[in-house]
Amino acid sequence: MPAISPINQNFMALNPEIISEDTIARIRDLYLQPSDGDSHDDHFQIVHSPFKALKFKDFYKDADSLRELTEEVEKLTFYDKQNDLYNLKQSEDLTDSENEVISKFVSTLRKDVGQSLSRIMEVSFNDNFTLTASRYAAKDVLLCHDDKCVDRCVAFVLYLTGTGEEKGGAFEMFGKDGNGQPTTVVKSLPAVANSFLCFEVGNFTYHQVSEVIDPTFERLSLNGWFHSDREISLLDYADPRPPVQQQVPNEDGLLFDECVSPMYLLPATVSQACAKFEGDSQIEFLNFLRPNMYKKCLEELKTLTDWTPRGPANRRHYSVMENVQEPNLKKLFESLASPQCVSFLKQVTGLSLVPKSPDVEESSEFSIELQKWAPGDYTMATDNDEYFLHNGLDFFLWFGSEEAELDHETGGNIVYLSTDEDDDDEDDRYLLGIDPQDNALHLVYRTDMTVRFTKYINHTAKSPYYCIAATYYERDED
């Protein structure tokens, strides 16, 4: 490409106030000493809690250098990146970029900045280095994670845009619970152009990029990692299986029939459903509940207030109702716990579910939740969790999704993926997508080679919606 001309000695020069010997020594002393609060001056900020992070407020000496770099980054090709963790646009790796301006930035990072960070944090970097550019427009987000991967040592981001006043796009830091798992956001650092933020990657460096709300703001940055040969002892944690419940017979055995639309109890309908499920391993029943039952349950759901948040944030974020006492919802839950419900599910799926009866020694168990979903909610495909190690029939019944005005841009859809290691391509791992629909029951057979996630619900959802989510386990499950 044609050379940038003229290049003077100040071109892309770092702010001398952040690389001077005196400043580096002062930052090092402040960074290494324990503190509950932040340390800062006009040129830097050190965050000590919930984990250590260092921010240089004025990275480049002059505005022209940042402008030149920003213009070159904006010319790059960006690719859509979407999965359970993020929704954004990203460039290819820029470590060996032939662009003169970007190459100069890489050289400055690896030499001047890398040496300074090595001294401040008392770490040694190896020859590996990673750099990409990221664009976050409205509705884009990067959810809670810790950045641990192979030999990553220090993560960094140089903000090319942002005044700090925009809604969204902030670097948000999470606290942790007694198991070392992320809880809630306890610190938020807005994106400000020409600021450089970095932190040592560790077991508890839980963070996210908050959803961009401002439709006029595009968060543009250069980000990556310095790598090292150090070893981090991995956190030994597996999310426990949800509480398992036993079937509860009701006196007259008619509770389930009173809730469900009569057409789904007809032998012909059951037979057709079983044939479809046998071929697809999933099926949807529209208008599953009797209309009056659905209406009353939705009305009761809207009155509930004591919802409990479900985490940890690196796996899920939504709310549940622990103790359902409203009359129609309670009746519905009791019907779903009944042997009649298990019998229905057995008939329409052909799975080896076992209804409870006096003649049966071991009947099928199940897990169930009443969930509330709203903007900011999601689940992730954490295939190392105990829940996904058990085959089961997943059960979803939705309420109020039409009022939320959900679509694929809004989120809330459930995605099933294969965990087969032979499926290298992400598209090959995709198995099924489910969109919430009012009064629709969706059944999916999930094996231990399958995981699922609920796509992040962004701010465009008009209102909360609700779901009864359950899993019925086959008898041979441990």
UniProtKB/TrEMBL annotation:
<keyword id="KW-0479">Metal-binding</keyword>
<dbReference type="Pfam" id="PF10637">
    <property type="entry name" value="Ofd1_CTDD"/>
</dbReference>
<dbReference type="InterPro" id="IPR006620">
    <property type="entry name" value="Pro_4_hyd_alph"/>
</dbReference>
<keyword id="KW-0408">Iron</keyword>
<dbReference type="Pfam" id="PF13661">
    <property type="entry name" value="2OG-FeII_Oxy_4"/>
</dbReference>
<dbReference type="InterPro" id="IPR039558">
    <property type="entry name" value="TPA1/OFD1_N"/>
</dbReference>
<dbReference type="InterPro" id="IPR051842">
    <property type="entry name" value="uS12_prolyl_hydroxylase"/>
</dbReference>
<protein>
    <recommendedName>
        <fullName>uS12 prolyl 3-hydroxylase</fullName>
    </recommendedName>
</protein>
<dbReference type="InterPro" id="IPR005123">
    <property type="entry name" value="Oxoglu/Fe-dep_dioxygenase_dom"/>
</dbReference>
<keyword id="KW-0223">Dioxygenase</keyword>
<feature type="domain" description="Fe2OG dioxygenase">
    <location>
        <begin position="124"/>
        <end position="228"/>
    </location>
</feature>
<keyword id="KW-0847">Vitamin C</keyword>
<comment type="similarity">
    <text>Belongs to the TPA1 family.</text>
</comment>
<keyword id="KW-0560">Oxidoreductase</keyword>
<dbReference type="InterPro" id="IPR019601">
    <property type="entry name" value="Oxoglutarate/Fe-dep_Oase_C"/>
</dbReference>
